[in-house]
Amino acid sequence: MFERMKEKKKEVRIVRRIVFIIALVLLIVIGIAGFRTYSYISNALDPVDPDSEKIITVEVPIGSNLDSISALLEENKVIEDARVYKYYVKFKNESEFQAGTYDLLPSMTLDEITESLKSGKVYREPLYTINVPEGITLVEIAENVIAKNTDYTAEEFLEKVNNPEYVAELMVKYPELLTDEILAEDVKFPLEGYLFPATYPIFDEDPSLTVLIEQMLNTTQANVLQYQSVLEELEKSPHWLVTFASLLEEEATAQSDRETIASVFYNRLADEMPLQTDPTVIYAMGKHKERLFNKDYEYEDPYSTYQNKGLPPGPIANAGLSSIQAVLDPADTQYFYFLADKEGINHFAKTYDEHLKNRDKYIGQ
């Protein structure tokens, strides 16, 4: 009996040891599984590639629900896991996503992606911004925007935007916007007028010139090609539009002036009169002048609208949206002349005699 009791105690100890080992193994397995699950979920909550500048275009169809949108984002490698994103969005009680085309980046956070889908436009929190003012030239963008806000010199920027191989690549990427007209013999800079004036968010501490340039071109394309059907009706090209708009941008001192100045140019073009706008002479001469003299108007250059009829070969500055719209919707006038007084206010005239009277009255010459 004593031996049997001894044997039974031994069996109990063995069972306990087995149970302990099994429990320990289970705890380890559960711990490993839990850690892996935690790591996987944590990874899925982070950006796919925090350093990526690659733009991924995602088309969200009308009527898409959260399940289909999540799957679409995972399929396009914008997020790591559709299920994690779906539960994350539900946890934050987000809804009312909008259909549309989005240029997203693998470096965007889940919150940035969600905000983009809710607002209908791509949203990211920028590190800083760069402002490109209206009415400045490519050289001024190089000197006053790029050189002052990035680590690139003006020379490096100008070398990039005038590089024939790079321009050819851009023409393939933006075929409707950048046509063969930008390569015409008399065009000074192929991308002059195509870097849209706007405030640009910068998401990388050291963005490449390619990213900066194409960010501006994307904005130009969005603003210009929205009028593609109008241009087709007019049988005009985007190059014609940005060139015409650049003249208004340089001449206008008030919003209402743009439509009226556009009407003056249209009237002159219809009568085969030279446009005779001073900013084209200044651009042709390649240096800023507060005032032009008689000898300056004799300066021979394809861009001078005193020496040549019609529009110049290309834009003379970057025009804003209001100037673009004024070209397509000008005022209906019989004006053929205008001048700006010492305060910058434009005065219009139907005849040359009226123009001379305005000159004597407002300029004193």
UniProtKB/TrEMBL annotation:
Subcellular location: Cell membrane
Keyword Manganese tagged: no
Regions crossing the membrane: 14-35
Top-level EC class as recorded in UniProt: lyase
Catalytic activity: a peptidoglycan chain = a peptidoglycan chain with N-acetyl-1,6-anhydromuramyl-[peptide] at the reducing end + a peptidoglycan chain with N-acetylglucosamine at the non-reducing end
Site positions per UniProt: Important for catalytic activity: E251
One BP annotation, GO: peptidoglycan biosynthetic process
Pfam families named in the record: YceG
Location, primary (coarse class): membrane
Membrane topology: Single-pass membrane protein
EC numbers, comma separated: 4.2.2.29
Gene Ontology cellular-component terms listed: plasma membrane
GO MF terms held by the record: lytic endotransglycosylase activity
Keyword Ribonucleoprotein in record: no
Domain of life: Bacteria
Keyword terms: Cell membrane, Cell wall biogenesis/degradation, Lyase, Membrane, Transmembrane, Transmembrane helix
Alphabetical list of HAMAP family matching this protein: MltG
Record family assignment: Belongs to the transglycosylase MltG family.
Function: Functions as a peptidoglycan terminase that cleaves nascent peptidoglycan strands endolytically to terminate their elongation.
Protein name: Endolytic murein transglycosylase
Organism expressing this protein natively: Planococcus versutus
